[in-house]
Amino acid sequence: MNVITVSLKEQLTAGLLEAKGLLGAVAVSDDSGLSVLSEGNGLLLVLVVENGASDGSISHYMQDGIRIQERRISRSTLEAILAAREDRTFIQWMIQGEIWVDPQAYLAQVRAELLEYPAIAKEQKLLAEFSMFLKRYMQCKEFLHAEQILDAYSCILRAIHHWARIVVLEAGVHPEATVWQQVRQYNTGVYKLYEELTASPETLKQRVELVLLACEFSVMSKMESCCSMLIRILEESEEPMGVEDLLGHPYLQGQTGANLPLLLNKLARKALIKEVAVATDAELFSLEVKYTK
Hints:
alpha+beta, Beta Polymerase, domain 2, 3 domains, two-stranded antiparallel ribbon, Four Helix Bundle (Hemerythrin (Met), subunit A), 53% helix, 13 helices
């Protein structure tokens, strides 16, 4: 078993302190060498640098019998990741890793921001998770109707995973890779549904139908709250907005992507927003579908 000794930590830290432009370093250690988080290394070092000259570079080496991987990331790239909150692995490194070097308390601030989960970021993630939930939920219904039970099961399993992430987000916590462990703390009902879906003695079709029914009554009721950012953007707009307009909005870029048309259609059907036809030429030969509150 490889163990990161105090001596090795001191040697590596001393070398890092001499590096130019280094803002901080986070260490993720793994005695087994099997952890996905450390990418199979005994030690993973994430180095945050001021400039982008070495941004994204990866190096491997051995020291004191320990396999070490160094990943370098620039401040600008790091802050883009923080804004999007899409790179789950990187976020785990920042939250769970041990801060070895942090002369300006920059990494401590980054960790605090990730743990706090600002209101705007929370709304963005809720919208993204709900849009992905909706897609999988609708696909499940379609496959179930066509008696494609295995495909329906695959879709509902993904849908309930997005439901779990919504539960964790609503609790003001960042969803981790081990989201089901988190869900047990905040909503045992959702966790039990997951167990029913994956381990119940009932037929596969019965299990899918049960969870689909739960999704219909429990998650669809969250549509308005999960889509509050999108609804507010439409409400504050002086003119109806098309899909392209919404995709270009600063708060929505990269959040819903290809799922946005489906989401807008569902919101309109539930009368949470209005669908309007806007003329694209003077002779009314073509009408564009736009949305407003």
